[in-house]
Amino acid sequence: MDVVYLEKADPESLRILREGLPSPVRIAVIAREDAERRPERARGVEVLIAGLVPRRFLEAADRLHTLVIPYAGVPRRTRSLLADFPALRVLNSHFNADDAAEHAWALLLAAAKRVVASDALLRRADWSARYGEPSRSLNGGTLLVVGYGAIGRRVARYARAFGMRVLAVNRSGGSDPGVDRLEPVERLDDLLPEADAVVVALPDTPRTERIFSGDSLARMKRGALLVNVGRGSAVDETALYAALEEGRLGAAGIDTWWRYPTSRDEARTTPPSGRPFHRLPNVVMTPHRASHVEERERKRMRSLNEILRAIAAGKPPRPVDRKEWY
Fold this sequence. Notes:
seven-stranded parallel beta sheet, five-stranded parallel beta sheet, 12 strands, alpha/beta, Rossmann fold
């Protein structure tokens, strides 16, 4: 099985990717620029590992049957391209699920305990936070996980340690021992009034875009907390800003945004939103770094190694649903 890896990788990461694979699996590493210049290198390739894929490379791939996205979700540009390749199986890697769930809880706790605002004051020798607005207690409350996938299941598991009742929504609902109640996403508005805290772990798909509208946010308990580690597109930024500014929501922790720098040159000058969330004391902000952890690439390679083993054994993971793009 001939595999091409179109992402950057250091020698140790590549060693992990190749470790223990059956001998018929051969992996070539090709720079994206080279793939665009020399699409003929796609001939004979059966599995491609890439997030953003050059069209000419796909067109020249005469034996390609599987595209592995080396992270969760499918970029919009790639989704548009794949419409012309309907037979291609698409797989995701969820290597970052544990770290994203940990980050969700870091944001949730920081928001509930007013950590950022208190820290900023005490750095100025100002102790007023000790006597001001109280923190929120999570123990015994209700957590709603929106997007009960690889990340959401871990978020729910951690909630048990806080003695929380856990509700969740996914595409189809059903039952799951990890939560007290699992409903289809169409029931989201029915569950929002019960939640003291909401963690959003949704992918960017047509179905999830602005699933948290002004009406949805208005259904949440006054003073409830919201954390987003999924995609910014799931939440209406104007409605969220208004709910936080007016105090209808108690606080928010945001890791995924609506605006991103397009180059490293823009990394220090790009506001993450058209709204001034940075001015709100009840917001905890991080720059989409939930999976930016030590050993990140090693974790990614171990996940990709498992996926390649499964493909070679004829037992690939569940493919991405092309209607839902997840």
